[in-house]
Structures are given as C-alpha cells and as structure tokens.
Design brief:
With 246 residues, the chain is α/β, with parallel strands linked by helices. It has helices at residues 8-14, 16-26, 46-53, 67-77, 112-122, 140-150, 168-177, 197-205, 207-210, 215-228, and strands spanning 36-40, 59-64, 82-85, 97-103, 123-134, 180-192, 234-245. Helix 2 packs parallel to helix 3 (46-53) and helix 8 crosses helix 10.
C-alpha cells in the first residue's frame, strides 16, 4: 500500500477524536524542549502544533504521504515546523532526530518490517519512538461491514482492504528483531460516536474504499456500511508503542 491523498478539509472537520488520542500519546514523550523530533504521519498538523509548543528551543519535522494533508499542516504551522510529503517506507532525513512521534498512521502501511527499519535509521543512538496506531481487533465491526458490502461492489472484488492491524506481541517481536530496545507494546480501547457518521466514516475510515469506487457509488457504499452496523459508532483498539534505538 502506497500513501494516498486524503480529503484534508473533511478530515480537519472530523479529526477531533483522533486529535484527542494523539495528544494522549504526545503526553508519553518526555522532552526538555530543545530536541529535534519527527512527526511521522502529521495529517493536518493538529497534534503537530501541540508538539511544537513543547519544543520552544527545538525543531519539528513533520511528514505525511498525502499532499493535501501536508498543505493543510503547512497553513496551520507556518514556519514553526518543516512540513513535507514523504512515504515513511522511503523515509530519508538529512540529520537524525532525537525522537519520533506517530499517531493514527502505521496501520495504513502494510510492510511494518521496512517501516520500523526506516524509523530506526532516522533516530540518533538513544532516540525514542512513541507511537499509536490501529491494532489487532481495531474497528472490527466496521471492517466486517465494509467487507460484506464490498462483495456487492465489482470495483472492490478481490481486495483485502487498506489496513494492517498488528498485534502487540507481533509488533514487539518485530521491533526487537530490528534492534530496538526498551520495547513496550499494549492495547487500549476507545469508543467514538461521531456527530456525522457518514462523513466521519467516509473520510477517516473508508476513504481508500471510496477512491476505488466510481463517484456515483461512494455515498451509497457508506450508507450501506452504516446500515450494516448495529449502531453508528467506531470501536477503536489502539496499539501503543514505546521503543528506543540502542
């Protein structure tokens, strides 16, 4: 899976629950205020702005695979951060960073081995990774509903979906094999009841499905998925990651 572009304006309207989760993750990153930190998957820059505020003498590099997200983040952050389009699987930095923060991003990437190897290479010795993404069991009811509806859509036939929801145990083992130390992985659950389920699901969760469908089938697809759900809520299972480069 390669990075896709997003509807950044819609994401900005819908992203409050993800921002709240992201700020909780940021609270786990202890900072003096003068570090160089990478936000790996910055989206529209809402959590990045909170990171910038924690680094009055530091430096923030924010990357995202979506040009539309990066444009929105640049508007929000101005000169407070270096913001650019980048695929995390091909990540190259001119200088290593002291820490990496990532929220709600890794589950969109299939190759976690390559992902964590690139992040390891981007860190200084002793540098820390503090991250959260969708984990094993994440949005399970929505995944099943989208699969059932997808069987009726020729454009989605034979497609396994856009997500990689890894387990804490598999992620810990993968990180240790790649040379990470002080590894800690664990799940948390968060229930979100979106004010506008159609826009929230269409933007935050099902965008990769919709881009495969002809325009006239997109709204009916989201409507059909919502109809399959017992209630229009999203049950998140988040995979939390703490690790350090030796």
């Amino acid at each position: 899976m390669r990075p896709r572009d997003w509807n950044a304006a819609s994401y900005e309207r819908m992203a409050a629950p993800l921002e709240a989760m992201g700020r909780d993750v940021l609270d786990r990153l202890t900072l003096r205020g003068d570090e160089r930190v990478l936000d790996a998957g910055c989206g529209t820059g809402r959590v990045t702005a909170a990171l910038v505020a924690r680094l009055p003498r530091g430096e923030v590099i924010a990357v995202d695979g979506s040009p539309a997200m990066v444009e929105q983040a640049r508007e929000r952050l101005g000169d407070d951060a270096e913001v650019r389009v980048a695929d995390l699987l091909d990540l190259e930095l001119d200088r290593p960073v002291d820490a990496i923060l990532s929220t709600a991003t890794f589950h969109w990437i299939a190759d976690h081995g390559r992902l964590f190897a690139r992040l390891h290479a981007a860190l200084k010795p002793g540098g820390r990774l503090v991250a959260q993404c969708g984990g094993e069991g994440n949005i399970a009811a929505l995944v099943e509903a989208a699969a059932r509806v997808g069987k009726r859509e020729p454009a989605l036939a034979g497609w396994d979906g856009p997500w990689h929801f890894a387990s804490p145990a598999d992620t810990e083992a993968r990180l240790r094999r790649l040379g990470w130390v002080d590894v800690w992985t664990w799940p948390t659950t968060v229930r979100v009841e979106p004010d506008d389920p159609h826009e929230y699901l269409g933007t935050v969760a099902l965008g990769s499905h919709l881009e495969r469908l002809p325009p006239e089938r997109r709204k009916p697809f989201v409507d059909a998925v919502i109809a399959e759900l017992d209630e229009p809520v999203v049950e998140y299972v988040r995979l939390n990651i703490l690790a350090r480069r030796l």
